[in-house]
Write a structure and sequence with these properties.
By secondary structure, the chain is of the alpha+beta class. 22% of the residues lie in helices and 24% in strands. It has a four-stranded antiparallel β-sheet with strand order 1-2-3-4, with no helix packed on it.
């Protein structure tokens, strides 16, 4: 800490003084290494984060009473029209639309459109 002369602290109340300047002189200077630190490239780290990709067929709002009536063989109408592209979601957020396809023994999806995600930076 830099010693301050008593004359600096003895100010006439009528006189303007620079309190911020006095306080700044008491604070240590920032280390030059901290100021020169470059931002890290997080791209390799971000590419490794797992996400959940889902294809949402549709949804329906049902009352609790109707839910209690559902059993094997029940049919529930969804909010999607047959043949309409389905929503592709990543961690619950819609990122595009797709059609269902069969890939070997599994279902798959054929991407119809993708939102502008700007994922090129992670490639």
């Amino acid at each position: 800490m830099t010693p301050i002369a008593l004359e600096t602290l003895r100010m006439d109340l009528k006189q303007d003084f620079d309190l911020d300047g006095i306080l700044d002189s008491l604070e240590p200077e920032a280390a030059p290494a901290e100021a020169a630190r470059a931002p890290r490239d997080m791209t390799p780290f971000l590419r490794k984060i797992p996400v959940k990709l889902t294809l949402e067929v549709g949804s329906a709002d049902v009352s609790l009473a109707d839910l209690c009536q559902i059993g094997a063989g029940s049919v529930i109408e969804l909010d999607k029209i047959a043949g309409e592209p389905l929503d592709i979601k990543v961690n619950g957020t819609v990122i595009g639309r797709a059609e269902v396809v069969v890939s070997g023994d599994n279902y798959g999806l054929r991407v119809v459109e993708l939102n502008d995600l700007e994922l090129d930076n992670l490639a």
